[in-house]
């Protein structure tokens, strides 16, 4: 084909496109097929006019379809708006016929909670009908519909599972929900999965299983066996496009053009038979990371410091095994397992901006080991155990981890990403060794490595983990990667604190951190952290964390100190409940740290009053949590149980959704400790060992047996 023919075809193709999109915006040059689409675009994007007005509340809107949805739920207009919705939230969400009963036939058949966010006149209103009435319209935005479809601040339909109504962080008023009982909580929201734990009000099924089992997949929430196998099937090489699977496609052309020499993998062969390197490796950008990991493993195996946990001896066979386990195709597969199966449990790595090619090889190796450990394939689990100690040594001798660099007071956190990734890798090592390693590895992590991690976090400066007020910035000034780096740091320090409290709860180890040093921001809503583009992230921040939001004023320390007061204002109680599951889990875990301090104090001048206050206020905030969303949709819960698939499993909430069990365990421990306050001082029973140690008597235990016995005792006697 001649160049002239090619040119003519290109021109004809451009002409056909221009004919299809013949209406062009004179302001932003966007093109549309139909005139009405251009008209709607001009009205909604380039003017502040709101030509559509509600005759009931006088609210104005930019689009007619938004007005129609508003009229259906406008207060006091049920008789004027025509047919009103009679279906329950679940049937309405799935567009199924509803019998309008309580519960309806569809929900009864499925065994799901039946909840009506817009009750009929003959139906008793749910307890949260009189929840805070501040709406988007009071902030200059359209009022939200009670349906699952929501709108951005300009009135455009967002229309997907990541779009939610405004949560309670920016609300000023609320009611006192202190009169609600624990069992009533299960009636307040639709079928969000985190509510399932409250069906049995005073049992601890997750914590009983957590303290009985070993291994990451058995202890945490890594999906069902069927879900894990579906993920494994989706990650098979024939189902994965390496180009599309790469997080940053714009780097692909440059990386694949690099001449990767076969000398990088000189001497590679399968054990017992010579086999050449697959040709795909030489065009795969992850092959560079394979080579970097290989060099690091060789270093820690051949140059062992005193007391090194590495016991392997370097040989051609070991080199082959290392290349095979960390091969590009396996790295890609294990990272897929990490995101889908593990990431929801400890979510401090920003997946949308994560780039495996530019990440530190130590972090990549640690993430791969986690992924292989939770894989449904037993050979992956067994192969991973071979490299646990090697990668541990690689991570903790890393220069970025051991440097004395302090974070300056700067608006550019992204320049410190190597240091941040070094801490992330160290944390991941602590996780997999504590749940997958040998008893000696668990003790080493608990006694030495984790202490080193906490010290490094303090060297960086825990108080640096704060956000700028991004809601004050227009889109052009919003730096997505800067927000991501700060949020990663906030979440990393939060999870370090949580691992510290885990050692307190399950190993009876004195805490290394105290809540008073946690002058950090609370974690941002998942809708902001998991937003997959800069535009959508900025949109979510504007929607859920506007400038007047209480979030920008709240720190972990201030929030926990407020919970320890006898009473907190209803508006603050609502703001705490609106922080989401991860932050509520962190606050519940902090109570355990205070219980440990009280239990092991010599002086009895202090009492349990502050702990009781924190328990009561946390419980009230947990009860209010469902009212921070409509129809069971929340900026903190992006995927419902019945909508999970391999592509969106990384967006679900992990084990921290069982935070109510952590609260209940703390409450039961406080009850047990209260025996010291009620027993008379001259009672002979004070000499009893069971009274001197009413909870846990053995310290720094590798096994969680004594905690499991305590939980089983609580459940047996229903204290």
TrEMBL record:
Polar residues composition-biased segments: 131-152
- UniProt name for this protein: C2H2-type domain-containing protein
Under SUPFAM superfamilies, the record lists:
beta-beta-alpha zinc fingers, Zn2/Cys6 DNA-binding domain
Q: Which GO terms describe its biological process?
A: DNA-templated transcription
Query: Which InterPro entries does the annotation name?
Result: VerF-like (IPR051059), XnlR_reg_dom (IPR007219), Zn2-C6_fun-type_DNA-bd_sf (IPR036864), Zn2Cys6_DnaBD (IPR001138), Znf_C2H2_sf (IPR036236), Znf_C2H2_type (IPR013087)
Q: Which SMART domains match?
A: GAL4 (SM00066), ZnF_C2H2 (SM00355)
Q: Which organism is it from?
A: Penicillium steckii
Keywords carried by this UniProt record: DNA-binding, Metal-binding, Nucleus, Repeat, Transcription, Transcription regulation, Zinc, Zinc-finger
Q: Which domain of life is it from?
A: Eukaryota
Q: Which residues form the C2H2-type domain?
A: 23-51, 52-81
Zn(2)-C6 fungal-type domain location is 87-116
Q: Where is this region: Disordered?
A: 122-167
Q: GO: which molecular function terms?
A: DNA-binding transcription factor activity, RNA polymerase II-specific; RNA polymerase II cis-regulatory region sequence-specific DNA binding; zinc ion binding
The terms describing its cellular component in GO are: chromatin; nucleus
| Pfam families, sorted | Fungal_trans, Zn_clus
CDD domains named among the record's database cross-references: fungal_TF_MHR (cd12148), GAL4 (cd00067)
Task: Name the major location.
Answer: nucleus
Cellular location(s) = Nucleus
User: Lineage of the native species?
Assistant: Eukaryota, Fungi, Dikarya, Ascomycota, Pezizomycotina
């Amino acid at each position: 084909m001649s160049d002239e023919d090619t040119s003519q075809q290109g021109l004809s193709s451009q002409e056909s496109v221009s004919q299809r999109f013949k209406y062009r915006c004179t302001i932003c040059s966007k093109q549309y097929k139909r005139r009405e689409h251009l008209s709607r675009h001009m009205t909604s994007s380039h003017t502040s006019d709101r030509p559509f007005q509600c005759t009931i509340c006088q609210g104005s809107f930019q689009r007619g379809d938004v007005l129609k949805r508003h009229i259906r739920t406008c207060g006091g207009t049920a008789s004027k708006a025509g047919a009103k919705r009679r279906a329950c939230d679940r049937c309405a969400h799935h567009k199924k016929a509803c019998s309008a009963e309580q519960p309806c036939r569809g929900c009864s058949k499925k065994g799901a909670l039946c909840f009506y966010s817009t009750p009929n006149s003959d139906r008793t209103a749910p307890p949260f009908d009189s929840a805070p009435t501040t709406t988007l319209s009071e902030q200059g935005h359209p009022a939200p519909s009670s349906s699952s479809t929501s709108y951005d601040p300009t009135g455009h339909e967002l229309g997907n599972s990541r779009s939610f109504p405004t949560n309670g962080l920016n609300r000023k008023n609320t009611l006192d929900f202190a009169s609600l009982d624990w069992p009533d909580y299960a009636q307040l929201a639709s079928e969000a999965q985190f509510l399932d734990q409250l069906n049995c009000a005073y049992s601890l099924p997750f914590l009983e299983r957590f303290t009985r089992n070993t291994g990451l997949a058995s202890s945490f929430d890594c999906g069902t066996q069927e879900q894990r196998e579906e993920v494994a099937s989706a990650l098979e090489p024939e189902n994965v496009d390496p180009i599309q699977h790469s997080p940053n496609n714009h780097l692909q052309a440059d990386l694949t053009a690099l001449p990767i020499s076969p000398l990088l993998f000189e001497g590679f062969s399968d054990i017992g038979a010579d086999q050449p390197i697959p040709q795909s490796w030489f065009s795969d950008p992850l092959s560079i990371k394979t080579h970097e990991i290989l060099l690091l493993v060789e270093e820690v195996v051949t140059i062992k410091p005193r007391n090194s946990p590495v016991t392997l001896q370097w040989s051609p066979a070991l080199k082959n095994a290392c290349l095979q386990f960390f091969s590009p195709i396996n790295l890609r597969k294990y990272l897929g397992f990490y995101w889908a199966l593990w990431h929801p449990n400890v979510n401090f790595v920003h997946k949308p901006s994560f780039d495996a090619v530019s990440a530190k090889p130590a972090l990549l190796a640690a993430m791969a080991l986690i992924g292989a450990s939770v894989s449904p394939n037993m050979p992956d689990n067994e192969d991973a155990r071979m490299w646990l100690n090697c990668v541990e040594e690689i991570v903790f001798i890393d220069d970025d981890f051991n440097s004395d660099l302090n974070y300056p007071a700067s608006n550019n956190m992204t320049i410190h990403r190597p240091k941040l990734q070094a801490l992330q890798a160290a944390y991941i090592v602590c996780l997999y060794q504590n749940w997958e390693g040998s008893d000696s590895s668990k003790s080493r992590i608990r006694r030495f490595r984790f202490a080193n991690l906490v010290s490094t976090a303090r060297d960086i400066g825990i108080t640096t983990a704060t956000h700028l007020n991004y809601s004050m910035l227009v889109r052009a000034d919003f730096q997505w990667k800067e927000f991501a780096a700060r949020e990663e740091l906030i979440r990393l320090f939060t999870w370090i604190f949580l691992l510290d409290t885990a050692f307190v709860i399950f190993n009876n180890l004195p805490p290394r951190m105290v809540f008073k040093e946690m002058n950090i921001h609370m974690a941002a809503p998942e809708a902001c952290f998991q937003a997959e583009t800069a535009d959508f992230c900025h949109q979510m921040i504007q929607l859920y964390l506007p400038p007047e939001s209480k979030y920008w004023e709240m720190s972990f320390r201030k929030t926990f100190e407020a919970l320890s007061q006898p009473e907190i204002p209803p508006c603050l109680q609502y703001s705490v409940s609106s922080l989401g599951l991860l932050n509520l889990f962190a606050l519940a875990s902090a109570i355990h740290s205070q219980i440990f301090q009280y239990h092991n104090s010599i002086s009895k001048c202090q009492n349990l009053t502050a702990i009781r206050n924190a328990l009561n206020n946390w419980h009230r905030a947990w009860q209010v949590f469902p009212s921070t969303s409509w129809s069971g949709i929340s900026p903190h819960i992006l995927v419902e149980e019945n909508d999970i698939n391999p592509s969106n499993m990384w967006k679900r909430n992990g084990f921290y959704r069982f935070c109510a069990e952590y609260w209940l365990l703390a409450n039961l421990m406080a009850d047990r400790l209260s025996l010291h306050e009620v027993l008379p001082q001259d009672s002979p029973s004070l000499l009893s060992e069971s009274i001197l140690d009413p909870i846990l008597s053995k310290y720094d235990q590798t096994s969680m047996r004594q905690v499991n016995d305590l939980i089983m005792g609580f459940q047996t006697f229903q204290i």
